[in-house]
Amino acid sequence: MKKDDQLSLLQIRITPSHLASVLGETEDHVIQHFSLMKEKLGNDNGVIQLPFTEKMANISQPIFSHNGHSISLAGQVYAVIFNLIEQLQMLNHLSECESCQRKLFQAQNLIEALEHEALDLKHLAQRVGLNTEALAIGFYLIVGQPLDSYWKSSRIKFAAAKLRQNPTEKGNIVAQSGFSEAQFEAAFIQHFGVSSHQYGQIH
Prior knowledge:
This protein has eleven helices and no strands. The longest helix is centred in the middle third of the chain and has 27 residues, at 70-96. The radius of gyration is 21 Å and the shape is elongated. With 203 residues, it is an all-alpha fold. The chain is 70% helix and 0% strand. It has helices at 16-23, 27-41, 54-64, 70-96, 98-113, 121-128, 132-143, 147-165, 170-177, 181-192, 196-202.
């Protein structure tokens, strides 16, 4: 993190018995369901990772800014939990569905092919035949990083290749990258560890 950057952390813990009562299931069934999902979708530490999607951000925002009655806060927390369960079910489906995975690889190829276009998640989702939530979750599953991070990395690598070919054309390269100059430099340093000027001198 850079100086003065701020991040919010939301941690929700719900017991199997509580979740069972909310879902109308038995506690044993809830434990079994999520244990199997953890074995199937979890990493080496048994953690299931999901991207922080736009939908989840919209649902979570009222919790961060909440200052009213606790009963309304409870409703907002339940909304987050139910959305998380939906995301897990979606992740489970995407991990098994070959047709969906082909669409996700198609999305990856389309991002790689973007030259001067900004990332439009809704348009990309429509082109491959998925909704934006499935695209974001599935892309993270297949590629291992959020879609916007992958796009940024792809754009910077494309710009670096152009910069190696013709360092004097930096202004045009920045203009074609889809970033402002400040965003370009920040992304360049984050990806390569040096500024674009230093990179040009090295290569």
